[in-house]
Amino acid sequence: MPKQPYSHPFLSYDDLARLLIQRGMRGDFHVIRQRLEDVGYQRLQAYWGTTAQGQIRTDFDTIWGQYCFDRQMRLMLLDAIERIEVAVRNRLVHHFCEAYGPFGHLNINNFHNIKPDKWQKWVDKLDEAAQKSSLLLVRDFFAHYSDKHLPLWLACELMDFGSSVFFFSSVEQQIQKKVSRSLGLPTPTLLTSWLRALNDVRNACAHHNRVWNRGWVKQPALPAKGANWYYSYDEFSQQWLPSNNKSIAFNMAKTGGILTICHYLLKQIASNTQWKKRLFALVSEPRFANIPHSWMGLPANWQDHPLWK
């Protein structure tokens, strides 16, 4: 079918609110109009579905509740991922500099799984960030030293998450193992998988995209074995029991799986964290009572699962 030029006309907030109501959206016109002005039609559109005829079969209060829940979930995820990112990066830089010194990242021979052009692009990105940075510690360094590059323990403060993931995946395995084991993971491959998944989630959160019931392309891998990963809920005893077929209760391609690995890593980083308590409080709020946890890839009774203890 040939493509057609875009022909939708501009619509005012009043017109957009009327259009939604005409298509079946239930709710107060003035409330809908105000929310459209505050948030935007396109952003809210991700929260309602339409029939083949373009009709909407829901009420606006439900849509707004999902949007508010999603916003709070993004903040929860960003909070967790920030702590994980900093902890991984700090451990990684520490072990790398211990082995190769403060400027070891400028020598490609200190890397074991990297293409020259990719490595150069990574170094150039760090240098560009350093030149543009207004951080006092960066400006002080260049004011006092003749070096054209920052030592890695300073440069890492300018890394984005993607650069940190790239760095981790490119260093020698012994360094990867030290970082992975400090986070309770048996293999670097597992941590690499988790970091890449978390990076995608972090980017979605930073751009205010829908996350609560979203499916993720990069699915975090699971340990081949582990005391608490493979459990099934037994309805008769009403408890989680070890699974004989190694079935995982959480959908790792959904946000429920992402929340689970965040909780797992946070326990290794800060055992006294209140993040789980705040997450449980969020999903238990009465105003979010109608939001199905199954859409997030979370099973019934998930808060009692051994991984969440």
Strand order of the largest sheet: 1-2
User: How many helix segments?
Assistant: 12
Low-confidence stretches: none
Radius of gyration: 24 Å
Structural class: mainly alpha
Dominant shape: globular
**Count of DSSP strands:** 2
Termini gap: 54 Å
User: Which percent bin holds the helix content?
Assistant: 40-55%
Strand content: under 5%
Q: Largest sheet, if any?
A: 2 strands, antiparallel
**What is the overall pLDDT average?**
94
The ordered H/E elements are HHHHHHHHHHEEHH
Short descriptors:
mainly alpha; 309 residues; 12 helices; globular; two-stranded antiparallel ribbon
Walkthrough of the structure:
The protein is 52% helix and 3% strand. The protein has 12 helices and 2 strands, in the order H-H-H-H-H-H-H-H-H-H-E-E-H-H. The protein has a two-stranded antiparallel ribbon. Helix 4 crosses helix 9 and helix 8 (161-170) packs antiparallel against helix 10 (188-206). The protein is globular and about 65 Å long.
